[in-house]
């Protein structure tokens, strides 16, 4: 593989990842999860390391949360769900399902130990940057998935508690397909003005509203089911699960370099490259 392109115009992205020490599928809380289909834990570990290396080669700086004491929380590896971050403030997730609620302790501890102020609401379901993606200059727009995992009440609370000197607007996007239960499984901002998405994951009103806020380029259903939108953008590099060739061609036409990695073990749990990462800055 040729060396990834680096963008001289973009600041280094700082990303949090959680090592998959205890990753497995032992319950089912989305249509992808089947405990009878075992995870190859050794292979998952190698896939995670490959993803981390690909992101670093693309120009990202990776922070790693070691899941010490988190034996009962196999989904802690999906760091995207930890929080949504603005500056040095993290609005923590309040997980919808009981199986994941205990993850909050580990993420809260990591943020506090690393100089972040943590906020949130224990009464409102919200699943972090899995359901909250920044776009536009200075992160002036926050697209939030609502429905399956995140309560619509979170929109106002996030806006209030992440408020700082740079204004931003929160947009609620209703998710309607159970396969795409977080917004980061079906929507991926590439830069300040353009995003890829799978339109049918959203209701008609959300589709209309989103088109008014950002230029959208659709991916087909085959690639959407292959988690093409669950990608990590670093400069002009887009790191994503292997196999989405049509989306790869689309990205190249848009001036991006797709970098394909094997995320097959994590897809057994309904997550891919983006789910394993949290943008810090």
CATH class: Alpha Beta
CATH superfamily: L-arginine/glycine Amidinotransferase, Chain A
Spatial gap, N to C terminus:
28 Å
* Overall radius of gyration: 17 Å
Secondary structure: number of strands: 15
Based on Cα principal axes, name the global outline.
Answer: globular
Summing up helix and strand content along with how strands pair, one would put the structural category as alpha/beta
Largest sheet: 3 strands, mixed
Provide keyphrases for this structure.
281 residues, alpha/beta, L-arginine/glycine Amidinotransferase, Chain A, three-stranded mixed β-sheet, 15 strands, 22% strand, globular, Amidinotransferase
Word description of this protein:
The protein is an alpha/beta fold. It has one domain (14-279): L-arginine/glycine Amidinotransferase, Chain A, CATH 3.75.10.10. It has eight helices and 15 strands. It has helices at 41-58, 98-101, 103-113, 154-161, 204-213, 221-225, 245-253, 264-267; strands spanning 14-18, 61-65, 83-86, 89-92, 117-119, 132-135, 141-146, 169-174, 187-189, 194-197, 215-218, 232-234, 237-241, 257-261, 278-279. It has a three-stranded mixed beta sheet with strand order 2-1-15, covered by helices on one side. It has a three-stranded mixed beta sheet with strand order 3-4-5, covered by helices on one side. The longest helix is centred in the N-terminal third of the chain and has 18 residues, at 41-58. It comes from Panagrolaimus superbus. Pfam families: DDAH_eukar (PF19420).
